[in-house]
Structure formats: C-alpha cells, structure tokens
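=== Discrete structure encoding ===
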Amino acid sequence: ITFATIPNQNLSSGTYTLTASSDSNLTVSFASDDAGVVSVAGNVATLKEGGSVTITATQGGDSTYLAATAVTRTLTVLDDTLQAQTITWTQNLGSKTYGDADVTMNATAGSSLAVAYASSNTAVVEVNGTKLVIVGAGAATVTASQTGNGQWQAAPSVDKNVTVVKANQFILAA
C-alpha cells in the first residue's frame, strides 16, 4: 500500500479525501481510530473536532493476491473555528539588580483569560503568579502564554529577556 503522509487539516474545511493505492490495484479501505475526531466513509474523512487520529489503510486481498500490510498515518485536525487571540505585553523587564523588589508582570490576553508566565532559568528569576522574583545573577527568558478554552485558540507566546546583575557589596569598618 502506498499511503502518503497526511498534512494537517483545518476543521473548517469539513472533509478530506484520503488517497492510497496498492500494487495489486485492489481497493484500499480506510479507518479512523477515533470517530469523534474524524469519521471515515469510503475514502472521505469527515473532520468533527480538533485533535489527532490514526488513519489505517488496508487492502484485504482476493483470490489472486494476499492481503497487503496495513499502513497507518496520523491526521491532525486544527480547530480553526475558535476565535484567535494575542498577548499584549509592553513591559520592559530589561536589566535588574540582585536584591531588587519583585516585579508585577502585566501581560494581557485579547480574550481576557488569565496569562501564565514561566522562567527559562529559575536560578535567576522565578515566577510566582504574576510576580517575577529575582533569585540570582544571570540571564533568563520569561514567557507569557495563554492556552485558550472552548471559545478561544491558544495565543502565540510572548518572550521577554531579563538580565540580573550582582548587587554591590558594602564593607563597613567597626
């Protein structure tokens, strides 16, 4: 069975025509492992919701040919029916000094859903809710993300770089 890789499909397209062939020229049949995401009738895949399924192509043979080895391909359905959203984050995290106060981060999502933050280097800065906590000298990237819900797509993440320098040391003589 020759069954090419299936490109990602948008849910809004509704259907996708599956194409495969066998060297015996016998009919190839298709099946989905999750009819709630994609159902198959003949060679037409009906896209029902976002997700990924395994499509199996089979050919059962006949009085002349043995059954062909089944071939599987992944079909990913992208739910483009949800509203798009973006994250707005104009705040400059820039350069900080060890010992500086926590910074309240203020990114917002166009959906008004909560924005989550993550640090690439928790030895430099940690995230506590919307607070950026300085814990050491070095560099880190803080990522703002919003995963979406039943109405909104996940927003593209936004990264901000932060550099924390060592604090000045003061020695007092007694």
Summary: The mean pLDDT is 95.
